[in-house]
Amino acid sequence: MKDQEFNRLNEYSKLSLFANIGLDIARARDIDEALEQIMHKIGDIFTPLNWSLILKNNQTGELFFKLVVGKSAEKLKGQKIPKRKGIANWVVENEQAVLIEDVKNDPRHYDYFDKTTGFETKSIIGVPLKANNQVIGVIELVNRLETEVFTPTDLKILQTIADFAAITIEKASYMQRLENLARIDVLTGISNRRDFEENLKKEIERTKRIGNFLALLILDVDDFKKINDTHGHQEGDRVLKEVASALCKNVRKVDYVARYGGDEFVVLMPNTDTAGAQKTKERILSAMPHSVSIGVRASGPDDLSQLLNTADQNLYKEKHTKNREKK
């Protein structure tokens, strides 16, 4: 009876452990915080000397240390692992968990990081981290403090924790996609009006705080209705895409481009006075593949309330002048 009672208590303890992990992850405000919670729990459960979250770069396919806790953590964080080198790459390529009691007897071990950090790897457990049915990385534990050897039970527990992490990543990725859809203009791929209005508020507050200038360009396509009426909406959509592309290529990295609505676009330029805004306008006009009109306004920290309205008024003044010259 005592053995049965002990086993029941042990099972209750495991259930409580995983329930607490789930609650901590659910409370996390974003994916980074959730992953940090997971790594913290791993330290409490396994007491390893070193444990890492290793992720795969989507562009290069290389693995890199995203989060590292324990001995030599600062030396490892951000480091890249060469392709086909090390146990982490084996886990990703084979989509299998691994338990190695003594790495000296395993040819898959890559000792470069031991040599560069002075850390001696003895035993390792690593489990694949999956999201959307693809392996995106590895959770890897090195050298247990108490026994210096990990067990098959440790491997099963770590795999369960990795499953929690995968659910968290999938949920966060889904929510991020929804957020992007709400902020991105589907046709042009640049920010939409909602996102622009939020950024405008932030830049106005920042400009007031640091006491600099803020400039705004409002642009629309000349005779856009005529393009649609004559050549159809597909041609109109193509023109809008080309205008968005030309804008993005002819502003600074710190500048912000958005589709304001219809055939109107905006460019928000921090730390830019009237002269700088005019230069940007001229550069855009010379590079633009279609005839456009641009309204410009730059304001200091004490005169920002009418930035948008004044730029809009200047746009229509320019359009009025163009229409009058045509006649």
Question: How does this structure look, described?
Answer:
This protein has helices spanning 2-27, 31-46, 73-76, 86-94, 112-117, 152-183, 193-210, 224-231, 233-249, 274-287, 307-326, and strands at residues 48-56, 63-70, 80-81, 98-100, 124-131, 134-144, 214-221, 256-261, 264-270, 292-299. By secondary structure, the chain is α+β, with helices and mostly antiparallel strands. It has 2 domains: 2-182, GAF domain (Beta-Lactamase, 2-Layer Sandwich), CATH 3.30.450.40; 193-326, Reverse transcriptase/Diguanylate cyclase domain (Alpha-Beta Plaits). The strands form 2 sheets. A 6-stranded antiparallel sheet has the order 3-2-1-6-5-4, sandwiched between helices. A hairpin with a 2-residue loop joins strand 5 (124-131) and strand 6 (134-144). Helix 1 (2-27) packs parallel to helix 6 (152-183) and helix 2 (31-46) packs antiparallel against helix 6. It is elongated and about 90 Å long.
Instruction: Report the CATH topology name of the largest domain.
Output: Beta-Lactamase
Helix content: 40-55%
Total number of beta strands: 10
CATH class of the largest domain: Alpha Beta
Shape: elongated
Low-confidence stretches: 1-12
Summed over residues and divided by their number, the pLDDT gives a mean of 86
Percent of residues in beta strands: 15-25%
Specify the structural class: alpha+beta
Order of helices and strands: HHEEHEHEHEEHHEHHEEHEH
- Rg calc: 28 Å
Give me the CATH superfamily of the largest domain.
GAF domain
The main pleated sheet reads as: 6 strands, antiparallel
Q: What's the architecture of the largest domain in CATH terms?
A: 2-Layer Sandwich
- Lateral strand order in the biggest sheet: 3-2-1-6-5-4
Number of helices: 11
- The span between the termini is 101 Å
Number of domains: 2
